[in-house]
Amino acid sequence: MWNDLPSTTRTGASFSIFKKLLKTLLFREPQKKNIFLHVNDGSSLQSLQVVGGAELSDPLLTFGSAVEVTGTLRKSPHPQQPVELGADQIHVVGECNSVDFPFKIKERHSLEYIRQLPHLRCRTNVFSSLLRVRSEATTAVHSYFKSNGFLQIHTPTITSNDCEGAGELFQVEPSGPDFEEEVNFFSVPAFLTVSGQLHLEVMSGSFSRVYTFGPTFRAENSQSRRHLAEFFMVEAEISFTQSLEDLTKVMEGMFRSTTEHVLAHCADDVGLFHKHVTPGHRVSPEGQKCPPYSKEMITYSEAIDILNRSSENFTFPTDWGCDLKTEHEKYLVKHCGDVPVFITDYPYDLKPFYARDNQDQPKHTAAAVDLLVPGVGELCGGSLREERLSLLKARLEDVGLEEIYSWYLDLRRFGSVPHGGFGMGFERYLQCILGVNNIKDVIPFPRFSHSCLL
Amino acid sequence: MWNDLPSTTRTGASFSIFKKLLKTLLFREPQKKNIFLHVNDGSSLQSLQVVGGAELSDPLLTFGSAVEVTGTLRKSPHPQQPVELGADQIHVVGECNSVDFPFKIKERHSLEYIRQLPHLRCRTNVFSSLLRVRSEATTAVHSYFKSNGFLQIHTPTITSNDCEGAGELFQVEPSGPDFEEEVNFFSVPAFLTVSGQLHLEVMSGSFSRVYTFGPTFRAENSQSRRHLAEFFMVEAEISFTQSLEDLTKVMEGMFRSTTEHVLAHCADDVGLFHKHVTPGHRVSPEGQKCPPYSKEMITYSEAIDILNRSSENFTFPTDWGCDLKTEHEKYLVKHCGDVPVFITDYPYDLKPFYARDNQDQPKHTAAAVDLLVPGVGELCGGSLREERLSLLKARLEDVGLEEIYSWYLDLRRFGSVPHGGFGMGFERYLQCILGVNNIKDVIPFPRFSHSCLL
């Protein structure tokens, strides 16, 4: 949307000889003796202004070129920038043909347009801002877990499990002539992980709190603005808990701490999105529009009552036992006052084998919890895990998975502890705080059905 | 190797009522009135001793069971532990049948044995130590890059590139009935990444310093102690450099800073490996055996001279132009005094298309650098990248890749900058500092040919 190169290096307050290679954006003032460049090294949204005499003018100093500038950092006469660089020498180290360069000076390109150019879009202001926010949010997530006693586990990408028992898996096999004759490289069918949960549960047998943060995969044949074939997930598992509230506290703590960090470290970058991409979108410790500083917690059964009392015409049924669809989630968030909503205790039959049986009736539920947020819908999903061997075994037998998951039953045989965990889609988190509508615009290289550029 | 459960929770110095669910290791002293448990929550190698009266004795208090203990934390009479827990109540929350439990009390199980039990091996001392070291090393790597101005980029796992132009790729396709008819989910063949380098180079067009840290893949049909099908790689890319020394400084800084952090935060865990797994192995700021605090830097041509002057009988040829094999690397490290060795300026024809041409003759080299370390061999590999459009284009034409990599040429067309980068195998780093011989023992869930457990 902004064809300006990401502009200005942060320079601090020292006034000294300054030599650095920088990207440049040139403004030549006609009829005047000075030339002005806006240069940027990617460290912030703001640009450093370089001022040079007319003798430094060079036809190669085009928009998008890379330059080396030698000069003196000095106080700027402009109130909006603390310093500027008075250039003694300017050297173009990387030319850029403005006619061929797909971003144009002073023009706002749409997110859709720059998405077609994954190898160049980081050179727009908006996408370099996104990448700084993403990097800081990643740092903040790690830092939250670290400071709360969680051990980081590198759960595997390739797995022989199918965590959800659902389809939508990518299978992995070697390509190339050496392997054509082999049936399975790993001797068993191997897939890309849909969740690190079961591997984290392994670690719950030894550590009180563990987490993982990495890529997960769904072979979903969808071009929707909400789905990717490869996306990042933060997952945590907490031992010694029998309470969904313990899980919601960690979800909330992670959200709050990460958002505070991002707002503190990337104010300009977040501001760019809120000003130009989603005008009116706000995220702040006081803001009610997004982060769960104020929140609601309702049961699934209460949610169904709310939906059935409403005057909305839903496309999908709202009988007890039906899954909540996007339209329902949206309504519930709105009904609760556009705040994050935790929904707990889902129908037992809707949840996977590992969800803990609440053993209630006649409406049989499992101890599961989802976090819905405005604009995005489901951000987190979690549950207590069935730690009771007999119940877990019976359920796995029911679905015919007892043999495949005998290792998982072992975890309950040998010093089992009550535990639970959750996962958060990292891209959805970024959509939530930035107000970005399409998930493809918050990941460096989006992969989805019919698209794997680069 | 150690069947003791990872033992003791860190307790601090406060003496107060203490209630926590913990894993237990029971010692009952026959004929005495007290029972003793060693309990652990995974936070450190050391165990917390729980002392209880004989009336708390319970046949379910077996090795490997999980317990909840209520009592008073008090000064311990033993000099090796600052505190012990005087138990008022002990409740077994998770039983463990010692006969079936594959780890036995007071027995040292081999790394090979515990490797067969990936769902339980985190419950041995040695593997819980490994996981703590791995988590701290991960934190330290992120922290090094963060504090040196690097932006973290989530490079993709699924890619349509083949970075090295070599084989050994895993291909990705959806499994299941919905997709049987489709040729390619992504419309193009898609692979698991062998390196995030080219994606990082994209980012070098906008940011001065970027890095990535995630899983990478090789479909290598090898059961060797040095190879995995899925392993973690740290990769960095630095803009505005024309010097290999800039790269070696970052490699060295990362190694030093990570190792210092691990030694400061996991002294007991590292000590366990150096005492019991590889007796005599040392890593310390003064130690010469591993970290590059003292180092050598030689060119490939000098390395060839050294090899040819030696009296060793090498299996593989040592003519100028031949690739260095493990036997050569080992000799070179030994020759240089068992210190890390940087080898620079490899034959041009040995390096991939992106390596920067040194334009020398008659021995034509590229600006590439490898870091060899004692015990492990190649730990890092890097190069300056060919930023000159005409040279890069000519080379891609030579190998017939010009069309596929037209996007990569675009990076040189529009404001190219001199840059370079490197990758470090994270598991090899862990092997190096811990002295672990087999790479399968430093990753939570090893994947290699014919094995994908869990």
UniProtKB/TrEMBL annotation, chains A, B:
Stored CDD domains: AsxRS_core (cd00776), EcAsnRS_like_N (cd04318)
Molecular functions per Gene Ontology: asparagine-tRNA ligase activity; ATP binding
Highest rank taxon of the organism: Eukaryota
Enzyme class: ligase
GO biological process: asparaginyl-tRNA aminoacylation
Pfam families xref list: tRNA-synt_2
Similarity comment: Belongs to the class-II aminoacyl-tRNA synthetase family.
Protein name: asparagine--tRNA ligase
Biological source species: Nothobranchius furzeri (Turquoise killifish)
